[in-house]
Design brief:
The protein has about 350 residues and is of the alpha/beta class. It has two domains: about 1-120 and about 305-325, ATPase, nucleotide binding domain (Nucleotidyltransferase, domain 5, 2-Layer Sandwich); about 135-300, Nucleotidyltransferase, domain 5 (2-Layer Sandwich). Helix content is about 40%, strand content about 20%. It has eleven helices and twelve strands. Strands 3-2-1-4-5 form a five-stranded mixed sheet, sandwiched between helices. Strands 8-7-6-11-12 form a five-stranded mixed sheet. Strands 9-10 form a two-stranded antiparallel ribbon. The structure holds 5'-O-[(R)-(carboxyoxy)(hydroxy)phosphoryl]adenosine and zinc ion.
Length: about 350
């Protein structure tokens, strides 16, 4: 089964084509970063306008890369929630138009289910479906979620962020420190030179088992810099700018690792799958793998290009739904906030 996946929930105009839920035939992404950079964040109306301009070309490129005609496509999957409504609407209406014109079945997909399925892309051993059950840590610019994935379409959300999302914290700290947008990759790159334990930043909520809080950490960084500068001495200890970044990054990441491993233990699950833009963070990838494998867990980590928003992950998540004969109503509209589905059939 070949499925074309369309993703326009944020600032990536993305189309992927996936065979049997895992084999990626094409994955074309047009980033709008340059249009949002000067605002220091994504402007939904600008994103929508750019999706409208770019989506037909991105789709054509994906079809050409996969050397396919529309007659070769068995299904269309499209993100309909959550995300910016104006941006989602463009992908959704485009998908409906394509489905109608080419007589192809289509399905609306939850963006975070896409991030979960990114773990199984290019893994032919999962062509029959993901290896359930597992715990999934989903961390992006808009989300920080810990999910217990029980079976196809059956997800229990264990925890969420109480304020800022993990990626948002990286982006806000990056912007405050004058780093290029988005802050995540910029902090990750410079933190490589720093000592992650030089400055003890707070972990956020420790008591609420699986919830996260990042606004306190962001404020702690701001307060620290106001008082001590970007580099210098604190309590007689020298710190560099990379030390500051590495210390922020370790506080942001280590809490995720601890809570994810704790959730796996609590639920007796032997597998962890991570996803979302922040899952491309080098410390997160290293720490969760090292610590998880030490506890005998299997750790799935998608390559960085499948962690950030893409169309292939949406195609993969849509594949099992289309295979099961699921359909979305023509009246399906975009939704900015929506919990992960908890029941499949
Ligand atoms: O999943 P994504 O592409 O878009 C959504 O938000 O849905 O995630 C983007 C987020 C941004 O906040 C960006 O700063 C963050 O992912 N990010 C990273 C890294 N690469 C991207 N955060 C930390 N370290 C990274 N290497
Ligand atoms: Zn995302």
């Amino acid at each position: 089964m070949r499925v074309l996946g369309i993703e326009t929930s944020c600032d990536e105009t993305a189309v992927g084509i996936v065979e049997n839920g895992t084999h990626v035939l094409a994955n074309v992404i047009a980033s709008q970063q340059e249009f949002h950079e000067k605002y220091g964040g994504v402007v939904p109306e600008v994103a929508a306008r750019k999706h409208l301009e770019t989506l037909p070309f991105v789709t054509r490129e994906a079809m050409e890369k996969a050397s396919l005609q529309y007659g070769d496509i068995d299904g269309i999957a499209v993100t309909y929630a959550p995300g910016f409504e104006a941006a989602l609407l463009i992908g959704l209406q485009f998908a409906k138009g394509l489905a109608l014109a080419s007589n192809i079945p289509w399905i609306g997909v939850h963006h975070m289910e896409g991030h979960i399925y990114a773990n199984f892309l290019d893994h032919p051993e999962y062509a029959g479906g993901p290896a359930f059950p597992f715990i999934s840590l989903l961390v992006s610019g808009g989300h920080t979620m810990l999910v217990y994935a029980k079976s196809e379409g059956e997800y229990v959300t264990l925890g969420n962020t109480l304020d800022d999302a993990a990626g948002e914290a990286f982006d806000k700290v990056g912007r405050y420190l004058g780093l290029p947008f988005p802050g995540g990759p910029a902090i990750d790159a410079q933190a490589a030179e720093g000592d992650p334990h030089r400055i003890p930043f707070p972990w956020g909520v420790r008591d609420r088992q699986y919830d996260f809080s990042y606004s306190g950490l962001k404020t702690a960084v701001v307060n620290f810099v106001e008082k001590n500068g970007r580099e210098g001495h604190v309590n007689g200890t020298k710190f560099s700018f990379p030390d500051l970044l590495a210390s922020f990054q370790s506080a942001a990441v280590d809490v995720m690792v601890a809570k994810t491993l704790g959730a796996a233990k609590k639920h007796g699950v032997s597998r962890i799958a991570i996803g979302g833009g922040v899952a491309s963070n080098s410390r997160l990838r290293r720490e969760i793998k090292e610590k998880g494998e030490k506890e005998g867990l299997e750790i799935l980590i998608p390559p960085a290009h499948f962690c950030t928003d893409n169309g292939a992950m949406i195609a993969a998540a849509g594949t099992w739904r289309l295979k099961a004969g699921q359909k979305s109503p023509w009246g399906l509209s975009p939704t900015s906030r929506l919990p992960l589905p908890s029941e499949s059939r």
